[in-house]
């Protein structure tokens, strides 16, 4: 069997990263080869370690180096890279080395609420401010244009006028945990 190796890049809590790790435990077709974070304080590092997954913490200097991520992924024989709340810029060399093999999750229905500054609570606050009747998640490939790579799947959830940013965040997180790992499995094994 040709086992696929995935790397997960995350910067924060890593609830999605953990969900993905658990999803593939016991599935010999897919191995989470490592979780990378750009800070040793990121909760995702200790949580991944508890689940027995290799972790890598990169320095700011490494994250800004044009070839660091690419060499790391090639050395580890990575087939797909999953961005789950990774807040550093993805260098062009990595995108070139992994065309349509880098998958990101965005916590809104792109092209709405994407682009510069649209991450984390900023997204949900903007959605609340505009009294949107729905929001959702977008799972997409990463290309050179920020938040504009080919969309793989979108899932939406209805909002009520009284939903604040925190409630919207929790509704979006439920969608992420329900769908992201399943979509990754489809992409990686197809
Ligand atoms: C998620 O909302 C994801 O859509 C976004 O960053 C957040 C990461 O959350 N890209 P977590 O660290 O996985 O809990």
Question: How would you describe this protein?
Answer:
The protein has 190 residues and is of the alpha/beta class. The protein is 37% helix and 22% strand. The protein contains seven helices and seven strands, in the order E-H-E-H-E-H-H-E-H-E-H-E-E-H. The chain has a seven-stranded mixed β-sheet with strand order 3-2-1-4-5-6-7, covered by helices on one side. Strand 1 (4-9), helix 1 (15-24) and strand 2 form a beta-alpha-beta unit. The two termini are 14 Å apart. Bound molecules: 5-O-phosphono-beta-D-ribofuranosylamine.
Proportion of residues in helical segments: 25-40%
Major sheet: arrangement of strands: 3-2-1-4-5-6-7
Q: Which term fits the overall shape?
A: globular
Number of strands: 7
- Low-pLDDT residue intervals, each spanning 5 or more residues: none
Series of secondary-structure elements, N-terminal to C-terminal: EHEHEHHEHEHEEH
How many distinct helices? 7
Task: List ligands, each type once.
Answer: 5-O-phosphono-beta-D-ribofuranosylamine
Oligomer: single chain
Overall pLDDT, averaged? 96
Through-space gap between termini: 14 Å
